[in-house]
Structures are given as C-alpha cells and as structure tokens.
Amino acid sequence: MYVLGIETSCDETGVAVYHAKRGLLAHTLFSQVELHAEYGGVVPELASRDHIRKLVPLIKQAMADAQLTSSQINGVAYTAGPGLIGALMVGASVARSLAWAWDVPAVAVHHMEGHLLAPLLEPNPPDFPFVALLVSGGHTQLVRVDGIGRYRLLGESLDDAAGEAFDKTAKLMGLGYPGGPALARLAEEGLADRFEFPRPMTDRPGLDFSFSGLKTHTLVTLAGTDGTHQDKADVARAFQEAVVDTIVIKCRRALRETGLKRLVAAGGVSANRLIRKKLAELASRESASVHFPRPEFCTDNGAMIAYAGCRRLLAGQRDSLEILALPRWPLESVTP
Ligand code: KG4
Ligand code: ZN
Q: Are 250 and 209 in contact (CB under 8 A)?
C-alpha cells in the first residue's frame, strides 16, 4: 500500500510517500521560516498562501522521487488538525480532492499522532504500550500510548508549551525567530552553574507542566547582568537546563507511575541535543528504552503523516468525502 502524506498545519509544507512494506520512499519539505522571520512569528494568512504555492509542486516532486505515478497511490493522508485553520484547509482540500480524483481513500490524521508515531519510522521501533513525551511549539504533553488511537493524557502544560517557552524567551533575549534552535545553540557556549533557575511544578505530585514563569525569570536574571554575549549565553544555558531538567523529572515520574519501560520523545523540542542526552541517561538509569525520531522528523514533516495514515488505512479506516480541518482537536478524542 502506497500512501501520500500531506502536512500543512503551521509553517512547514511537508509531503511524503510511505509504503507499508518498503518504508519511506520520498519526503519533501518547504519551511516558511524566512517568510515569517521579519514579523518575529508565524503570520497565519501568509502561511496559508504559501502552502497554496508550494504544495502541488512538492507533491509532484515527492511522486517523482518515489518513482510513482498517481495510479499507484492507494491512499492520501493529511493533517486535519490541530493547527492554523487556513493552513489546514489548504492541505485538507488538496488531499481530499486528489483522493477523490484518484478514487482512493483519504484519511484525516491528528498532527500530534503524527509526531508521536514518528519514532516508528526509525530502526528498532518501540512496541506498544509506551509513554510519549510530546514537546512542540504548541503542545507539551505526556501520553500513555496503548496502540494507534489509544491515547490517555497523563499530563500537559498549563500555560506555555516547551517550544513556545524557548521561542518567547529567545525573542526577549533578542535572538530572533525561530528562537528555539538559536537559544539552544547559544546555551552551548554558556558556563554551568552561574545562575539558578527553578524547576517549575516538580515539588508537587502530578505530571503537568508550567513554563511561563521561566520567561520572566530569564528577563529578571538578564537585567542583573551587563548583557554581554557571555552573560546571555550563561542565562541561555541556565534556562535550557531548567526546561530539560523539568521535563526529565516528569518523564521519570510518568515511567514509574505507569510501570512502562519504553519512552518515546517527539515534536520540535525533541530535536534539542541536551534533551536527547538527558533522556537517554534517564532511560539507562530506569532500565528503559528511549526512542526519538531522527532530528529532521522531530519538527513538522510529511513523513509522520504518511506513516500514521498508512497505519490507519491498513487498520481499515475509511473517512467520508468531508474535507476535515479542525484547529482545536484534543488528542484523546481521536478514534482507535
Ligand atoms: O513540532 P514543531 O515543528 O511544530 C509544532 O507542531 O509546534 O515544533 C516547533 C518548535 C518550535 O517552538 C521550535 O523553537 C522548537 O520546536 N525547537 C527547538 C529546537 N528545535 C526546534 N527547541 C529547542 N531546541 C531545539 N534544538
Ligand atoms: Zn508539530
């Protein structure tokens, strides 16, 4: 079964072709980062218009890379939400229309399901059940995953998502957009132990997160320095360590509370080098395994949507002709 996957929920146009037995055959991506950079964040209307420009050429390229013609495609998967409504509408309309024209099924995929299944594209994929840490620009969640579509939320951020905290903190430090990777790079130049940052909500039970206070803490800490490059790097390091430590503490708690020995980390922030290192250390201490997507599949991409769609089509899912675009769509409400 050949499945075309389309991702347009935010500022990346991603397209991929996945085959149930042959694996990933092609993936193409266009990032709108430069388009939004001058505004310091994603401008939804510009995002939608650019998806319209890029999507069909990327589909043609992915099909050519996979050396397939349209008659060989057995299904089309698209991100139906959550995300920016205009951006979602582009991918959903194109995907649904292609499926109709090619007379194959279309399947609406939840963006976060795509993320949490992305590590299954890698060698030695984990079996179900596992604990998934989802850390992206819009979500920070710990989820118990018992199978495709069988998700139980264990905890989530009560305010900023981890990626959002990275981005907002980077912005107030003058690091531009997108700030997360820039802040992470700067942190690598920072000295250890110069500043002490809190580990929010780790002193009480539960698996929820709160990251918005770390922004303010960064601002106040920075104001107490001369604002040199080294000062900024030291603050960035303390900020990154606080976010990562907090996440690691909650992951340890989630593994112990569920008794599970498999941890999956996915979403843009799981590309962060420190988080990958610290979660690998945690897993070895807990005699557990940890699974990440390759860095390029941590952030938004079409491969994870093609993969999730293929699993759903193989399980017999057939959606109606409706073009589905759901800006808000709780992960727990997806069907198994
Ligand atoms: O999953 P993603 O591509 O989009 C959403 O679904 O939100 O995640 C993007 C987020 C952004 O907030 C970005 O700053 C963050 O992931 N990010 C990182 C790193 N790479 C991407 N944050 C920290 N360190 C990184 N290396
Ligand atoms: Zn995402």
A: yes
